[in-house]
Amino acid sequence: MSAPEVKRLGILLFDGVEELDAVGPWEVLSWWTANFSEDGYVATLFSVDGAPVTCAKGMTIAPQHSADDVEPLEVLLHSGGRGTRPQVKDPAHLDRVRAWRRDVPLMTSVCTGSLVYAAAGLLTDRPATTYHGQLDTLAQLDPSIELRREDRYVDSGDVIASAGVSAGIDMAFHLVVRLVGVERARQVRRGIQYDPEPRV
Fold it and tell me: Where in the numbering of this chain does the DJ-1/PfpI domain appear (predicted)?
């Protein structure tokens, strides 16, 4: 009997990535996939060239793969942070994102990752959100986007955009609900003890 196919969840890293944009969803998704392998998913970190990245506040993260050697993805998460500023104007990166869009069933973003998606044309005529300080920039990049200024994340089917920084954690839990179910998300939430308090 052949082994069941494993579905991969990939988080893109790059220099200037906002730490929690990547590490927050990684905690949710890696805890889930490590503790419930029967669900058939694995989480992985990758950068374009496979080299370690220096994050926005100085953390260094070594990815597990490059864009060339990461195996086919079921979900791709494009993190945000100041490193997205040059990506929005980088034709090679935008072409790379469009190629991923053709191959990856579900594209997700955290924070200003959605600016890159907008620049690549992935959010045309869709609802979306981003970091609160960049909502107007998102609208300028693609005026057809329906801005959801108050939403933590926006699921438009095959693209999910979340708001800034910690909102990526909530979006990652939404992914668990969508891919497996509410009960599994509750188990993961309990496992990582995610219950924000106090609300200030």
Answer: 8-176
